[in-house]
Amino acid sequence: MRDPKAVSADDLPVLPGGASRRAVIATGVLAGAVLAWSLRIQAGDPWFYPATFILAAIYMVGSSVAVRMVGSRFRWHASRRGIRDAVVGGVLLALLFFAGAFLVRYVPFLRDPVDELLDYARVGSLALVLLITAVNGVAEEMFYRAALWRILKPGYRIVVTTVLYTAVTALAGVPLLAFAAAAMGVMVAVLRERTQSLTPPIIAHLIWSLSMLLVLPWVV
């Protein structure tokens, strides 16, 4: 059931034109290339920080351009109910993965890739990694749940955005992270559909990703 206070003007009945579609596709391809580059950077390498900020900038700028091409804008307004659902959803998803992580620690082929990924937080500046995680979380939602969301037909938005987000996340080579992306992708897409706002998906995304970064090292 949709949020009764949701703003419906965001989801136009007519899909955006070719220019906006091309802008979204170009953003996705360019972001994928930068992501592939960033994944080759070893933990502790100073290039890791600019690479991840460049990735976020591509998502944000490309999404903003694509949205403005159709004379629209991002919808940030959300009701209290939408905010509450986002907080509850983010916390519950984080708790679910904390529980799963206790089992992962006993499975080397699942544990080792996660441990390597967490090296970026261990070796570098935790404060900077937290900032990068937050900025990229917002940027990803702007692209997947706003720009890409707009060029898809209503009946396909949840499935397509979740599948593409999971596929891109899988490039990191961390099975647990890919599974997490699928679960979170469904949750934030449902929030986006119910509230027709970008704020609840961002809140849920940040609660999950920041809690994973801070707590997962202690669990794994």
TrEMBL record:
User: Does the UniProt entry include the keyword RNA-binding?
Assistant: no
> What InterPro entries does the entry give?
Rce1/LyrA-like_dom (IPR003675)
Mind telling me which residue stretches traverse the membrane in this protein? Answer: 23-41, 47-67, 87-108, 120-139, 159-190, 202-219
Q: Please state every residue range assigned to the domain named CAAX prenyl protease 2/Lysostaphin resistance protein A-like.
A: 125-210
Organism superkingdom:
Bacteria
Keyword line: Membrane, Transmembrane, Transmembrane helix
Any Pfam family the entry gives = Rce1-like
Give the protein's recorded name. CAAX prenyl protease 2/Lysostaphin resistance protein A-like domain-containing protein
Please give the organism. Answer: Kocuria gwangalliensis
Q: What is the lineage of its organism?
A: Bacteria, Bacillati, Actinomycetota, Actinomycetes, Micrococcales
